[in-house]
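Let us practice reading a record.
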Amino acid sequence: MMKMGVHTLATIAILALASSLTYASDPSQLQDFCVAINDPPLFVNGKFCKDPMLATPDDFFFPGLNIPRSTSKFTWIKCHSIRRY
């Protein structure tokens, strides 16, 4: 009987720890974007973000991702370089 109590307590402790990790995520992923402004008057450690109210769908669109590239290299990976600012 004591062994079952220890297993139950251990199970509850593991579930409590696992469920506490789920709250460590960002509550709103929709706010996690920054459309860079290419010509700010001051440049300090990166680029400034465009006002989210002025962001358009074209800021997030790149027409070349559907074009297949050669994967005959050793790593079988081909990356697209995207610069849209």
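A brief commentary: The CA atoms of residues 62 and 82 lie 8 Å apart.
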